[in-house]
Amino acid sequence: MTFDLRELYQEVILDHAKQPRNFGHPPGCNRQAKGHNPLCGDRLTVYLTIDDGVVTDAAFDGAGCAISMASASLMTEMVKNKTEAEAHSLFKGFHAMVVGDQAENAENAGDGVDLGKLAVFSGVREYPVRVKCATLPWHAFAAALKGKQEDVTTEE
Amino acid sequence: MTTAAGIRRQVQRDSDHLAFDVRRVREDFPILKQRVNGRPLVFLDSAASAQKPRAVIRAVQRCYEREYANIHRGVYFLSERATELFEGARAKVQRFLGAREAREIVFVRGATEAINLVAQTYGRKFLNRADEVVISTLEHHSNIVPWQMLRDEKGLTLRIIPIDDSGALLMEEYEKLLGTRTKLVAVTHCSNALGTITPVKEIIRLAHEKGIPVLVDGCQAVPHMPVDVRDLDCDFYVFSGHKLYGPSGIGVLYGKAALLEAMPPYQGGGDMISTVTFEKTEYNVIPHKFEAGTPNIAGAIGLGAAIDYVSGLGFDEIADHEQELLEYATEALSETNSLRLFGTVKDKACILSFIIEGVHPHDVGTILDHEGIAIRAGHHCAQPLMDRFGVTATARASFGLYNTREDVDALVAGVRKAVEFFG
Ligand SMILES: Cc1ncc(COP(=O)(O)O)c(C=O)c1O
């Protein structure tokens, strides 16, 4: 396989796509939001348990491509036990990385957002049509954080 | 079987293939020489939009370099010539579709605008509360949404012709849908997502027995087969130029003259009027009544060139070539066990829609793109059809007259790579 495909589909991504973590609808969750990518029809729902301003549990279900499934899976791992504010800045940092926005990146670097494992998605910025696959779960996550009721789409 | 007739047919086929030399045809399409990701481009998305032969590109260029002016109004040489060429393109479309008169050909932006035009003029005037419009499960969103908008405005009901698992319309169900409330049938001639060619002639005959007019969406049919609107006896026929190797932004609405005359205009403006005072406006005659404003002049001329191009190659040759590709590709793809084909009727255009178990169509698309292969991955603007099969998306390879067996081989190799990669 060509080198650059592996840059997009890193092992960690393939692993999470095949075996998504935190997949399902936990009974105790108190916030949720649906994400929809109208371009490909992918849909997923993010479920959060927020306790005293801290994300104590995160899960998702739905169906989609390898990038969106892996992104949702890693996201749920990463936001757990973060405060709402920390989780939100992860979202902003992640967004800046996959969109490849220099200004946004610099701004976030100032905030010192440590993306950790999420860095495996840095290859996505080379594939503009796939950026929305990676950000779909995060848009749903941000909506759930805000307690938004309507579905969000990647077109907002 | 080696009968004399069989051999003669084989000889005939072989010489036909000599007549249709796909290598020479490919020379006509400059874009196909491109490399993508370091590989020769394998373009398998012609159902979305076809590539353009040099004849079309040159016609558009010549128009802007030597023939361009606004039409229908100049008293000078260039305007007269542009008008002649524009109206000449209309006459080409008329002959291409077998229409009785050139005034039955309305130039529009594309099939989408053509269907909206019929919904907003014919539909608004002649359809009322409790009337029914029959469409099918196979429809592209552009033959669904305009009718839903009209439904919501008027209180109509949409009735849907179901399909079987192979992607064929259930004709007995269709017959049952035709009732005293049915005021229009709008169906596709060929499904963009599955390739199914529908029995439109029979659909029209059954509707006409009950006095119901029929609109046919011919977007995916005109690139692959000869169409004769008088033989079909359809009331409206629509298609887009860009899928017929012509420019984008130009399309056609054919309508029987009597119907077009009975319909109110679509948009108001210049060219669609004969006289205007602040009190009252007289509308122009058809087709101009439906062509408000300056049209896509170069686009129409380019479409005329595209029609000349495909007619020059001949639909017998094009269809033979594409059907052979379809057979070859169907067989080759079927060898991948985890691959499921959608649209398995016999009578179909060279469109292969599929999913690979465990690999999302989007990922298939990205892997193939790396190999220089352009396919479509998604719902193909036919979400209700995807729902019918219980999927959100498929991968779709659609072939044009310039595709080759090597393109199929590349597709199959790419599919294998995707299976390996995600396996
Ligand atoms: C069957 C069918 N109908 C209608 C359309 C709409 O055509 P356009 O977007 O050119 O108006 C398409 C194009 O995708 C199509 O395939």
- The ordered H/E elements of chain A are HHEEEHHHHE
Helix proportion of chain A: 40-55%
The strand line-up of the biggest sheet of chain B is: 4-10-9-8-7-5-6
Uncertain residue segments of chain B? none
Describe the oligomeric state of these chains in a short phrase.
Answer: heterodimer
Number-wise, the strands of chain B total 17
Alpha carbon gyration radius of chain B: 22 Å
Strand arrangement across the biggest beta sheet of chain A: 3-2-1-4
The named CATH superfamily of the largest domain in chain B: Type I PLP-dependent aspartate aminotransferase-like (Major domain)
Question: What low-confidence regions of chain A span 5 or more consecutive residues with pLDDT below 50?
Answer: none
Terminus-to-terminus distance of chain B: 43 Å
What is the CATH-assigned architecture of chain A? Answer: Alpha-Beta Complex
Distance between the termini of chain A: 35 Å
Number of strands of chain A: 4
Q: Indicate the overall shape of chain A.
A: globular
Largest interface, Cβ cutoff 8 Å = A-B, 22 and 20 residues
Proportion of residues in β-strands of chain A: 15-25%
Mean pLDDT of chain A: 88
SS-based class of chain A: alpha+beta
Shape of chain B: globular
CATH structural fold name of chain A: Sufe protein. Chain: A
